[in-house]
Design goal:
Strand content: 5-15%
Number of strands: 20
Helix content: 40-55%
Largest sheet: 7 strands, mixed
Distance between the termini: 123 Å
Radius of gyration: 35 Å
Length: 784
């Protein structure tokens, strides 16, 4: 017999079966299904509207059409070109700075690999692939803003407001339209996507979702360190502050995600941490005036600047924060879980925004002369736009969830409609300034493309410029390598780059030094600036430079170097091994340049600083070695090595400036040095040189030496011989003490100097001192 059930109040139905819990759940889902479909349709409509708006702004601002915009656009296009051109040899780039590290070595490589892969797979151009990638990045960021706010707040209206607000921020579009910072832009897209995925994880935690979060965050870190790092901070904040699990479990999730991301990017950043020098892989401070960002840019009127916030973003954020704080103060507890979730996610976003804005304004607060390389305070609003816009959406939803008035539906409508309309007004007014301030090198490159005969037929000669004007279009439109380049953080030797650029820009430089630098760097073409001070030197020396003509817009004057050596060339000039630090080698190189004693006369070869790193067989490949700033971990073995080298006819020149103690130890252990003991003494201004009849000093006017001072101010330290070997000869006395001594050992000549001559010569750029230094090196070679 079936049990009786109550079908409706007061009616007893016999024989009816009671519904199970599962059946009631199914019927409940059926009743909710139309509402779910309606919410999904609303989400699709609002999201589509935001994406259409994003596309429309991108097209009208020219960001999504034509060539890539921004000052650094062709830097990255050139990087992709060189990457594809030399693949799989991606660790070296011969085009910039006379050779430099490429990947990794400048930016983290993911952006350039994405573009290269797209070009190789589709056959499109690099420029078009960059523009498409830019459009995809902005669409992803807009969609992520909507999805993130929608998942946390469960409010489609709040999500739509967040998307509209971020689109109306000029600084949001600045990386591509003005700066051309495409790796940062793509890293921002990965960061926004990772933040959305983190919100998805908080709704329903699962391994697959957490893995997606880790992958997206890792992609951001593999594209740009700063933007990727801010993205990781956003993700960790969401996973920590949104209350989806007990706090202890959330902390474990955050630690696990941080560890996983760090492990996945370790291959890229570990070499930098252990000594691989690349500025942008790990940001490094530099001591320059950091004046911070103008306060006016926080509230600038619409259309004022591409680097500014909209007049809506920060006021709306502050207003909503104040309102949320007021609600928190008025009520001791909240009935709405939504309020707590929204406030938690907002806290995560505000931490990122606070970090960004603190750096933007720290210079104004402290006047500190400190700035991170490549991270400019004026550009920081870009990184705060998305977190602040999503904060606005989240706090709007939080406040709406706490309205208890009978007119709460009306108040909620007003709460959403007012900022949405304000965002639309700002967006409409912002589009013209985006187009107005967009910067493209395409036309400029075509106008400035230099007249360089034979430039595309060989890579054996380089181009040099007299100013720091952007030159990446040269690498993109021609095959010519250059002395400078866009990414100096990848340069192998910063000192060489700085020296070459300073010689090119000096007004006027030494003719001899200029000839040396051009020959040393295989420079065949020079682009000088438009001012007489920039090109006058080259025009005044027609025997060295042939004037080709100006660029189409008269920005540059182009010259051909009449005589220069190619990058790869055979020579019979003797090589001299420099045993010393890189700094000591650079001092010698610049000192020799002053009298143009270079590739056609002798080849200074940079070696290791430690004598014990060489074998006798290695040393015998050089007719001469120059010890300057050298080391010897085992002096006895080093002395034996020098004895064998000199005995076999090798020439030896040693400058013991700063290393007299080690030199005395080598002499004690049997090294064939003309001086065995030294005593330091100081000179100030005058050298007190005694007249000399030595052949080493024939034709050298000692009166033309620069003052004997250190760092332009302090007394100069000189090493004088206090004990000499029996067969040595004194070539020069200073203050009555031998400072230049030589000795003939078999077929070899060994010359000792205590003057620290390369340093003093480089400090004062003295051609007389340079001539003496060259004489010492050439004399030892001539006899060997």
């Amino acid at each position: 017999m079936q049990p009786a059930t109550v079908d409706s109040p007061g009616v007893l139905v016999l024989g009816a079966r009671s519904r199970t819990a599962s059946e009631r759940q199914v019927e409940e889902q059926r009743r909710r299904w139309p509402a779910k479909v309606g919410r999904l349709a609303l989400d699709l409509v609002l999201l589509a509207a935001l994406l259409v708006a994003t596309w429309e702004v991108g097209v009208r601002s020219t960001d999504f059409v034509g060539t890539p915009k921004g000052a650094d656009a062709l830097d990255h296009a050139s990087t992709v070109k060189l990457l594809m051109q030399d693949f799989p040899h991606v660790l070296w780039n011969p085009a910039w700075f006379s050779g430099m590290k490429l990947l990794p070595g400048i930016y983290p490589p993911l952006y350039h690999l994405i573009i290269a892969t797209a070009v190789a797979a589709s056959g499109t151009t690099i420029e078009h692939a960059m523009v498409v990638c830019t459009a995809v990045a902005f669409l992803v960021m807009t969609a992520s803003a909507y999805g993130f706010v929608r998942l946390i707040s469960r409010s489609s209206a709040a999500a739509a407001v967040a998307g509209a607000v971020v689109l109306a921020v000029p600084a949001f579009w600045q990386p591509s339209l003005r700066s051309g910072e495409y790796p940062r832009l793509i890293a921002m897209a990965f960061a926004c996507l990772a933040t959305f995925l983190a919100a998805l994880y908080t709704r329903k935690p699962g391994r697959l979702r957490l893995t997606a979060v880790i992958i997206a965050a890792t992609c951001g870190m593999s594209t740009h360190d700063l933007t990727g790092g801010l993205g990781v901070l956003q993700v960790l904040g969401v996973l920590l502050f949104v209350n989806y699990r007990p706090l202890a479990e959330r902390i474990k999730v955050v630690a696990g995600v941080a560890a996983a991301v760090a492990a996945m990017v370790l291959w890229l950043y570990l070499p930098t941490l252990v000594g691989f020098h690349a500025y942008y892989l790990i940001p490094q401070p530099r001591f320059v005036p950091n004046t911070g960002t103008s306060y006016r840019r926080l509230f600038e009127t619409v259309g004022s600047s591409l680097k500014a916030f909209s007049p809506l973003l920060l006021p709306l954020t502050l207003l909503l924060m104040a309102a949320a704080a007021w609600f928190a103060w008025r009520r001791s507890s909240f009935s709405s879980k939504r309020f707590r979730q929204c406030v938690g996610a907002s806290a995560a976003m505000l931490i990122v925004a606070l970090v960004v804005l603190t750096y933007a304004y720290i210079g104004r607060f402290t006047h500190a002369d400190l700035e991170i390389v490549g991270i400019y305070p004026n550009d920081m609003f870009t990184y705060a736009a998305w977190p602040l816009a999503t904060t606005c959406g989240l706090l709007l939803a939080a406040l709406a969830s706490e309205l208890r008035s009978r007119l709460r539906y009306l108040w909620r409508s007003a709460l959403y409609v007012a900022p949405a309309l304000a965002a639309v007004v700002c967006l409409v007014a912002t589009v013209p300034v985006l187009k107005r301030d967009a910067f493209s090198y395409q036309q400029t490159a075509e106008i400035q493309l230099p007249i360089m005969p034979g430039s595309n037929g060989t890579k054996q000669y380089r181009l040099a410029l007299t100013d720091a004007t952007e030159t990446s279009w040269i690498n993109f439109f021609t095959n010519v390598p250059e002395v400078g380049g866009p990414f100096n953080q990848g340069a192998v030797n910063f000192t060489w780059s700085f020296w070459a650029e300073s010689v090119l820009s000096n007004d006027p430089p030494s003719v001899a030094e200029m000839k040396f630098m051009l020959n040393w760097n295989a420079v065949r073409w020079i682009q000088a600036g438009s001012g007489p001070s920039a090109y006058g030197f080259y025009q005044d020396h027609p025997a060295l430079f042939r004037y080709v003509g100006p660029s189409a817009d008269n920005t540059y004057h182009n010259f051909v170097v009449r005589q220069t050596s190619p990058i790869l060339a055979a020579t019979d000039a003797p090589p001299v091994l420099i045993v010393g630090s890189a700094e000591n080698y650079n001092l010698l190189l610049r000192a020799l340049a002053l009298t143009d004693v270079g590739p056609n006369t002798l080849i200074p070869v940079q070696g290791e600083a430690n004598l014990n790193d060489y074998s006798l067989k290695e040393l015998e490949q050089f007719p001469e070695i120059f010890l300057y700033g050298f080391q010897a971990s085992n002096p006895r073995q080093a002395a034996k090595l020098l004895r064998g080298y000199v005995r076999h006819g090798g020439g030896l020149v040693i400058d013991v400036g700063g290393a007299a103690g080690l030199a005395a130890e080598l002499a004690k252990d049997g090294a064939p040095l003309p001086v065995t003991k030294w005593r330091s003494f100081e000179l100030y201004q005058s050298w007190h040189f005694a007249p000399s009849k030595s052949s080493l000093l024939r034709g050298i006017d000692l009166a033309k030496f620069s003052p004997a001072v250190y760092a332009q101010t302090f007394p100069y330290l000189v090493e004088g011989a206090s004990q000499r070997s029996p067969g040595s000869s004194v070539d020069l006395l200073s203050d009555g003490r031998p400072v230049l001594v030589d000795e003939h050992v078999g077929k070899s000549t060994v010359i000792e100097s205590g003057l620290n001559l390369p340093y003093h010569d480089d400090t004062f750029s003295n051609t007389t001192e340079s001539s003496l230094l060259a004489r010492l090196l050439l004399s030892s070679i001539a006899r060997s």
